[in-house]
Batch of 2 targets.
Target 1
Amino acid sequence: MRFDPTTTFFIVLIIGALLGLVFDRFLGRGWLARKVTGGGHHLTSALVGVAGSFIGYHLAIMFKIGGGWPQLLGAAIGALAVLWVWRMAR
């Protein structure tokens, strides 16, 4: 199943924001997030998740991994990877 570009944009955006908020909620903030964000850590985690989801989505396109759902799965994996790196950075 393929989505039109506008729908795909918003789905990838939502995937990244939701995973950022869930990651922040259950795994807590890392050292770098505490130093950079101060009190606004939820917004920063959501934005880092969005950045990761777009990276993962475009990597899935570059490696020609199916169309539609597999690319959205790549967006989710990318968001989690970038969030994990963001949390572990010291």
Target 2
Amino acid sequence: MDVDDKRTAQTVELLQEMIRNECVNDGRVESGDEVRNSDMLQTYLEGAGLDVETFEPAPGRKSMVARIEGTDPDAPAVCLMGHTDVVPVSPEGWHEDPFGGQLIDGEVWGRGAVDMLCLTSSMAVAYKHLATSGFRPKGDLIYFGVADEEAGGTWGARWIADNHWDAIKCDYVLTEFGGFPTETAQGNAITINVAEKGLGWSRLHVKGTPGHGSAPYQSDNALVRAAEVVRRLSEYRPVPQVHDLWKVQVDSLPYDDETKNNLLDPAKLDAALDDLPDRRKARSLHSCCHTTFSPNVIHGGVKTNVIPDEVYVEVDIRTLPGETKADVQAHLRAALGDLYDALEVEPIQEDESSASPVNTPMWDTLANVIKQAHPESPLQPGLIVGGTDSRFFREKGAVAYGAGLFSPKVTLETFAKRFHGHDERVDVESLGLSTQLWVDIAHTFWDS
């Protein structure tokens, strides 16, 4: 792959600016302020003579869309989608300023460096290059800089897909995350994510009876009951599912035949995961074959000497392919037992698992282009255990892949450690490879 150093330098600079804009999304509607990154991207692309359309469904939650019109109205449209928001940080855990965007020893440091401002900036640089070079695709080529991905897309992709689908309508969308060299039993492969788990985020309303904190004996304390709710959720062990993508993943794992056979046997799978020496790997694999429940937020109580009469527990629930909203409730009932009927369960966000096929022209294009950078590494379809904005496109019938292209320094394990973690950073080589990836895809997809 012939990486252009000048474009790589532009991606580095744009990534640094996006990090420094500090578009932190903590889930509140008044957070994010993606307008800063959106306006910067708008100015950057309008400088190439491109028309940019913007959407701001809530103050500061701004997204932007640019389009290079195709020459053939019947040709498939492609969207390059990158989100502009980042998750909060704990600065005391960092060795460098998380919003400094510093370039240190060939790596750009900062929140969002891998999730996913690296791709958002590389897409913008590639897109501007294509526009200024006179490139005309057969089908429309769209650049979508979107807000609010880190809190479920309510003020971003979900809102635009529901209210202005024509602005981002496409046949294929490329977004986070993929393109990592992954060790397999057959050698290195490049993981391109084709599916993701569903969301069943829920708020559990636990009720009690108020009273004076000086007389807690046999009181009806909502916080005590909530503690039992949390305990049961943490100990709940749903039956693992051996779905098709899990079979592909197990086949590629660099483990002995006995371990792999156990990982494909629902009766032995959990014990096999417990025996794996790499706990980070085991945690990731567990999420690929289980519906997961993580109680992460609790609100309740009004004063130290008042027994609380209500407490709210928010649970991050991730569902497997084929599971529905009804399955989420069945899981909660199984986990909580007699406590379930005494609760009020309020859905926070509900999206079923989504997937895209691999027998497509875009998959073939990705394989051919990525082979130039990693000639001995075939593509491998993967399942994202978190969530991305891909699901909103899949609901509309588009094919969505989590792509990108990273250097051998950024393996899947390295990415997972930096993703939402301390000392998030990405190497310049990966920025150059990703920038070139989008350029090469644009030049080859419609001719393949």
